[in-house]
Design a protein that fits this description.
Largest sheet: none
Number of helices: 3
Helix content: over 70%
GO cellular component, one term: small ribosomal subunit
CATH topology: Methane Monooxygenase Hydroxylase, Chain G, domain 1
Distance between the termini: 58 Å
Strand content: under 5%
Keywords: Ribonucleoprotein, Ribosomal protein, RNA-binding, rRNA-binding
InterPro entries: Ribosomal_bS20, Ribosomal_bS20_sf
Structural class: mainly alpha
Family: Belongs to the bacterial ribosomal protein bS20 family.
Number of strands: 0
Function: Binds directly to 16S ribosomal RNA.
Radius of gyration: 18 Å
CATH class: Mainly Alpha
Length: about 90
């Protein structure tokens, strides 16, 4: 337990930020999983494309704001793009 008033405040801030960061990362994982499920279900290309766009947009935002490392965001975008392009060619 913090002994100083400022340390108590820092603890509260840290807990709030941690919860916010976890929520953002969880939202990203959900978007990626939704895209993968649509591909597995052989959904319409337009549905998969909208899921792809939202996932890439979220990756860009989290990478720029350092919620995830920029290189990780780039790597995930590349993986999703390959997955989407493979699906689009198969259609």
């Amino acid at each position: 337990m913090p002994l100083h008033k400022s340390a108590e405040k820092r603890l509260r801030q840290s807990e709030r930020r941690n919860a916010r960061n976890r929520a953002r990362k969880k939202e990203l994982k959900t978007l990626i999983k939704n895209m993968q499920k649509l591909i597995e279900a052989r959904a319409a290309k337009s549905e998969v494309e909208s899921a792809y766009r939202s996932a890439v947009q979220k990756l860009d935002r989290l990478g720029v704001k350092s919620y995830i490392h920029a290189n990780k965001a780039s790597r995930k975008k590349s993986q999703l793009t390959r997955l989407f392009n493979g699906y689009a060619e198969a259609e």
